[in-house]
Amino acid sequence: MASVRDDMVMAFEVKPLGIRGRIVRLGPVIDDILSRHNYSPPVSAVLAQSVTLAALLGSTLKFQGKFILQTKTDGPIHMLVADFMSPNGIRGVARHDVTRVKELGLNPTEASLLGEGYLAMTVDQGADMERYQGIVPLGSNTLADAAHTYFQQSEQIPTRLKLAAGPIQARGDKAEHWRAGAILVQHLPREGGVSPVPFSSGDAPEGSEQQVTEHDDWVKARLLLDTAEDHELLDPMLSAEDLLYRLYHEDGVTVYPALPLVRHCTCSTATVTDMLKRFSNEDRADMVKDGAIEVVCEFCSTAYRFKPSEFA
Fold first, then answer.
1. What's the number of CA atoms in the CB half-sphere (13 Å) around residue 187?
2. For the chain, where are the E strands, in sequence order?
């Protein structure tokens, strides 16, 4: 069977090291999501990483539902929203201050774009089920740093992940197209249980985390992951299987069937119509411009136009 190189998430294991993991590769789908907005490259890069992280974490859901990743900060990008809708849909949007982004120059850091605030990760199992939400601070952290904190606090499983996003110009193609990738590994020792991680209750003084000895297998696995470079996560000519082989061929890596990812959006003529019906006649009258009511989806930028008489 031919390798699926793009727009997928794949689970894998390095059994001799007690490692499980997932890898995400996004090509045309993330390019489609970003092309629907006029974001600058720095904003596009951060949003692409957030969508990739949502796919990486949301694809672990064992039920029909939604995984929502959202930031709220005081930075130039004051809000990111990315979600994974089971079984395989992804989308994302960024709210930002164009002027403040430009003031940071050509190559701003992720931390300077996000600023102080928090990252919330929500599991929504539907209207009849209780939501689960985890919140971690951003501060001077990147999205990857915040995800590490989340795993340390909530699951207490040794976890390492890398995120990358950027425009790539393929041979023979004059235009650049966005790509994104992510890889995550976690340690579950062969003898059972969970590998120990440094832990603090949150009330202890800074730097007083419990000192633990890391498992040798985990040290090896995370050091090998750290050798993976951004261009390897983004390279359209390098398959996920080949990248995993580069990293873990010495111990042997087992890969499982890839889950294809697609862009999704919940907007439609019917859903927008239902939303407008909930407004009062006066509110709808205020929405009329040039004889029509226009609603533009924040996620996919699809424009819906209605005649006011449709709601008479």
1. 23
2. 8-14, 19-26, 66-73, 77-85, 89-96, 117-124, 132-137, 159-168, 177-187, 254-255, 259-260, 262-263, 288-289, 292-296, 303-306
139 confidence band (pLDDT: 50, 70, 90): confident
pLDDT above 80 for 190:
no
DSSP code of residue 60: T
Q: Give the mean model confidence (pLDDT) for residues 26-42.
A: 96
Apex CA 216: angle with CA 215 and CA 219, to 5°? Answer: 90
The alpha carbon dihedral of 137, 142, 144, 145 has a sign of negative
- Rounded Cα distance between 169 and 167, Å, is 7
The pLDDT confidence band at residue 227, using thresholds 50, 70 and 90, is very high
Which residue in the block uniquely carries the two structure tokens 């340390």?
152
Q: For the chain, how long is the longest CA-to-CA vector?
A: 71
CA 81 distance to own-chain centroid: 9
CB 225 within 8 A of CB 233: no
Q: Is the alpha carbon torsion for 151, 248, 11, 178 positive or negative?
A: positive
